[in-house]
């Protein structure tokens, strides 16, 4: 699966551009603030409908315009698919192969881009919501059933919270508690199963990146193996919070409050990790995600790497370049300095210079 053509109009600082990327390696290079990340963002939106940056539709539209237009052509399993996305401040219009998209799940399987960006690295150290989002996004991408389940959980959560604030509503809480537990168990089971599946690769990659000097782990606050135990745990959590829930009018336990623990050498990343260690952690997580997508779908995903080599020492950089070179999938990487890539042997890559939102393919 790869992006064979990308055309953008009035997207961020890119007024008009069309590129024909290589099915293998593409390097977007240029000074800071020229539009490299914007290109990656457009590809990410073609795969996910949303940006990986926390942005509103109007931020995506070129300042002097009222509409952005994104067009992507994707080669998958030997056939071509097209994606067209029109963005206006009031919303997005999406066409897959010229037809309106009814189910988001159909759409998410069209390109499956995986992003590695400094914004995401920051999530490892931030609030629990960011770490949950990292995990959930990875699962959404591979499991079409996860999105409706997450939506069902959100619905139960909203209903249950509303009852806390409705006079006499607490009498009806019990049935919504049961619905919440049922829906929540799906989410927790999926999160556990996903981590169980990728843990071996993740551990292995992290060890290699760190030259066998460190170990990393992602730990959920519940045990994955035991189904009944998972349910009992959820009930006990709710029971423990009951009094506070009535006081605050909010559901205080469940998948929406889980805090996945990211650790290096048994210590929380939040408190101890350096920038380089956080990056290595994300590299290992994303690498595991990529390998998992490849194993589950039989096709390598498109990899988007935004400025990923800064703050990695030479050994860690070297490991990652070797990994990239050994892969079959399509890669887009941004950089201000192409020299390390040329030295690493990425000579087969297609290079695009980016200046003031204008892209030029180097000869
Ligand atoms: N809606 C918009 N309309 C016009 N220009 C925009 C819009 N949104 C962002 N920009 C411009 O895009 C540029 C930033 O582009 P981008 O984030 O892709 O930079 P970059 O080349 O990746 O740089 P860096 O190496 O610093 O990450 C800035 O000049 C910013 O002003």
UniProtKB/TrEMBL annotation:
InterPro entries documented for this protein: DNA-binding_RecF, P-loop_NTPase, RecF/RecN/SMC_N, RecF_2
GO CC terms: cytoplasm
Alphabetical keyword list: ATP-binding, Cytoplasm, DNA damage, DNA repair, DNA replication, DNA-binding, Nucleotide-binding, SOS response
Principal subcellular localisation of the protein: cytoplasm
UniProt: ATP binding residues: 30-37
A GO molecular function held by the record: ATP binding
SUPFAM superfamilies assigned: P-loop containing nucleoside triphosphate hydrolases (SSF52540)
RecF/RecN/SMC N-terminal domain span: 2-344
Compartments, record wording: Cytoplasm
Coiled-coil residue spans: none
Record field: transmembrane: none
GO BP terms in the entry: DNA replication; DNA synthesis involved in DNA repair; double-strand break repair; SOS response
Stated role: The RecF protein is involved in DNA metabolism; it is required for DNA replication and normal SOS inducibility. RecF binds preferentially to single-stranded, linear DNA. It also seems to bind ATP.
Similarity comment: family membership: Belongs to the RecF family.
Protein name: DNA replication and repair protein RecF
Gene that this sequence comes from: recF
